[in-house]
Amino acid sequence: MNDKTNVNRILTGLGEVLDIVEGRAQPARAFAPAEIDVKAIRLKAGLTQQAFAARYGFSASAIRDWEQKRRRPEASARILLKVIEQRPDVVEEALRA
């Protein structure tokens, strides 16, 4: 590829980024959040560490370690936590099925 082709590809990509940032387009793929505030999610649910862990299938020690920043949830746990934060009813319905 020549330099002009590369520059055009970069400019096209930047245009796509701008569309996403300004809400005119959705990203082609979703990613697990890099950071998540486990304690805030748990408190919003009004649950103790033990109750939150039991309700959503985590260990109480994992909740404690995540909240105290001794460990970071794996990507799959961060995704589940994000869903719990946004739509706890959906998670609970799925777990009852």
Please, could you describe this protein's structure?
The chain is an all-alpha fold. It has 2 domains: 1-30; 38-96, lambda repressor-like DNA-binding domains (434 Repressor (Amino-terminal Domain), Orthogonal Bundle), CATH 1.10.260.40. 66% of the residues lie in helices and 0% in strands. It has helices spanning 3-21, 38-45, 49-56, 60-67, 75-86, 88-96. The chain starts with a helix and ends with a helix. The mean pLDDT is 92.
Report the end-to-end length measured between terminal Cα atoms: 53 Å
Q: What is the helix/strand order?
A: HHHHHH
Number of helices: 6
How many structurally independent domains?
A: 2
Q: Note the beta-strand portion.
A: under 5%
